[in-house]
Design goal:
Largest sheet: 4 strands, parallel
Radius of gyration: 21 Å
Mean pLDDT: 89
Strand order of the largest sheet: 2-1-3-4
């Protein structure tokens, strides 16, 4: 019997519910369990057809173990090779190439020199940088954050260039990015599983953590939700993420992708709420079973995004989704997506909104 495992850290509610739901759905076809590792030998497989990876981004031993599992045939969700290479600044550049709005963002070198480097290591870097040009590009207020970080770690709201230089001096060896502030009227956080299942959730990043999914004002239009749905699918299919969240800040009716590099997104019942929790458990379980059915021992069972496929084949970027299919792509194709129903459910008749005549604009730190 094939096994489906989940690798995780301190979280409990999602891993426990995921294992329970897979076992309910799979019956005698598959068995789900918490991953157990007592040894890792090179090129020797773990006994799992599929592993949902929720923690290897923080544990280098687990990351190496997941890569070893992947090359021996396990379908690791998310692809540990791409996840190791990915970062937020690149994602913004890719989004622009795909025609998806993002805030104006500049890459900022670390304040302190990396270990084992000297002044001679930076002969190609201008000193000083064109700070005025950078500040004119993003404007103020702006947000400074790690170019590859997650969550709210080392995120600074900056009001002027003096504020920038003060905060930048505290960042040590972390490479940062400076990002335009989006003054928004609406904000959304969206789960995407398997490059096809989408759950659009209203979100208020200024609320206390446990209240961020409690929003009283309904979405402004179905057209906006449809655009967000389209952007979520495109970003995840090009990046090759099987399990991710995408955040959008809506300014003047335009959804700006704020954060879309969350391959181990929060799925705790105490923060996302019962309805969203039930959705992510159900769809992650369904997708894990689909991947287990498609998995073939000894071959590559990973998801490789359209961006990488276009690079490997020389296919123009926006044509890459039509290139040869990976096992994960075949899974996406084999099941008709129900994402539009999920998006439109935010505007269902029983939640029929009475739209206010005007909206007060809100500004908040972007993740």
């Amino acid at each position: 019997m094939k096994k489906i495992g989940i690798l995780f850290g301190r979280e409990r509610s999602f891993p426990e519910a995921f294992v329970k739901r897979v076992n309910e759905l799979a019956g005698t076809e598959f068995k789900a369990e918490f991953v157990k590792i007592d040894r890792i030998f090179q090129a020797e497989p773990l006994d799992y057809a599929v592993i949902i990876d929720r923690i290897s981004q923080d544990v280098p031993f687990y990351r190496a173990a997941m890569k070893n599992a992947a090359i021996t045939g396990t379908a690791v969700i998310n692809n540990p090779f791409w996840w190791s290479a990915d970062e937020k600044f690149f994602n913004n550049a890719l989004a622009i190439k795909l025609g998806i709005p993002v805030p104006k963002t500049a890459l900022i070198p670390s304040y302190d020199q990396p270990d084992d480097t000297s002044d001679e290591s930076f002969l190609n870097l201008a000193f000083p940088m064109d700070w005025e040009g950078i500040f004119n590009y993003t404007g103020f207020p702006a947000y400074m954050k790690p170019f590859d970080g997650g969550g709210w770690k080392e995120v600074y709201k900056l009001n002027d260039k003096e504020d920038f230089f003060d905060k930048h001096s505290q960042t040590k060896q972390t490479v940062m990015m400076l990002q335009e502030e989006i003054v928004f009227e609406e904000y959304f956080r969206c789960y995407c599983i398997g490059g096809k299942y989408v759950k659009i959730m209203q979100y208020e990043p200024r609320n206390p953590f446990h209240l961020r999914y409690q929003v009283d004002t309904p979405p402004s239009s179905e057209a906006l939700l449809s655009t967000i749905h389209e952007y979520v699918l495109k970003l995840n299919q090009y990046l090759g993420y099987d399990f991710n969240t995408v955040e959008f800040a809506v300014r003047d009716g335009i959804p700006y992708a704020i954060d879309f590099c969350n391959p181990a997104p929060d799925a705790d019942i105490n923060s996302v709420g019962q309805e969203n929790f039930d959705w992510v458990v159900e769809h992650s379980a369904l997708y894990a079973i689909e991947r287990a059915r498609a998995q073939v021992d000894g071959q590559d069972n990973l998801t490789w995004g359209a961006y990488l496929k276009s690079s490997a084949s020389g296919t123009p970027l926006l044509s890459a989704l039509s290139t040869s299919e990976t096992p994960a792509a075949k899974v996406r194709k084999s099941t008709k997506s129900s994402v539009k129903a999920d998006a439109v459910s935010l505007l269902s008749a029983e939640n029929a909104p009475t739209f206010p005549s005007s909206k007060s604009k809100k500004s908040a730190a972007k993740k």
